[in-house]
Amino acid sequence: MSTNDTAGNPNVRQTAAELATGDRTDTLLATDDLRKDFGGFTATDEIDFSVAEGELRCLIGPNGAGKSTLLNLVTGSYSPTAGSVYYNGHDITELAPHKRVQRGISMKFQVPSVYSDLTVRENARLPIQRFADGDERRRRVDEAIDSAGLAGYEDVDASQLSHGQQQQLEIGMAAALEPELLLLDEPVAGLDVAERETIAERIVRLNEERDIAFVVIEHDTDFVASIAEKVTVLHNGEIFREGTVEEIESDPEVQRIYLGGEK
Ligand SMILES: Nc1ncnc2c1ncn2[C@@H]1O[C@H](COP(=O)(O)OP(=O)(O)OP(=O)(O)O)[C@@H](O)[C@H]1O
């Protein structure tokens, strides 16, 4: 895992301001006072969240805390009610989702979306077919299958894969877009311990070998501890805590919100 300097900077607002003025930092993503309302309900509020280049961050929090909403604001699936999103020094708040993908932001959603009647290779080809052809496409398909840890399964129908292997395939497909930032929404939900370990290995390898920064939503603390250096805790739509895995695990206030003692 890479280390970083700015991720520990509590003054995210200043980081966003630096990005707005074009000053180079190693900050990849920064949100400034980001808010999303659904009707009269505020799902996220005052979110100043930053991720450094090559960082591996986990995002945790009780059900309904606003984790998926935050990632959807980063991908552009949701437009914010207020606030800004900066990426690589540019304000992307108004940028269309597909243009964010072109800039290097890729997301794997919670529900697996591989095509079960296509083979592993055919699935792996899907995300990149518009961006590459010929040898370049073949190289990236092979890379996706390797990233997924599914070498040897190229001609197997996705329907024959286990749920864990389907999740691996999806991570490989997201990585095939050669993102700088990969957002994963509960990639190990419903998987057993061995499958979780495989996914953790895949994520760490992509982070270390391809320098892809990750934001991973996950509830399982063992999984979080196995991949992340730093954790952001959301609660009631706001950032509740940020710290190392050890700091977050030992924080009684974090334990309290998870146990449902406070609303
Ligand atoms: N499209 C939407 N329309 C209305 N309300 C929404 C929408 N998306 C999310 N919400 C609400 O916003 C709040 C935050 O939801 P979100 O899915 O971001 O939480 P989460 O932390 O990802 O939860 P979980 O861990 O259960 O997936 C919830 O109360 C949810 O019902």
TrEMBL record:
Gene3D superfamilies with a match to the protein in the record: P-loop containing nucleotide triphosphate hydrolases
Domain ABC transporter as annotated: residue spans: 29-261
Keyword Transport: yes
InterPro entries: AAA+_ATPase (IPR003593), ABC_AA/LPS_Transport (IPR051120), ABC_transporter-like_ATP-bd (IPR003439), P-loop_NTPase (IPR027417)
MF terms (GO), sorted A to Z: ATP binding
Alphabetized UniProt keyword annotations: ATP-binding, Nucleotide-binding, Transport
Keyword Glycosyltransferase part of the UniProt annotation: no
Protein name, as recorded: ATP-binding cassette domain-containing protein
Origin organism lineage: Archaea, Methanobacteriati, Methanobacteriota, Stenosarchaea group, Halobacteria
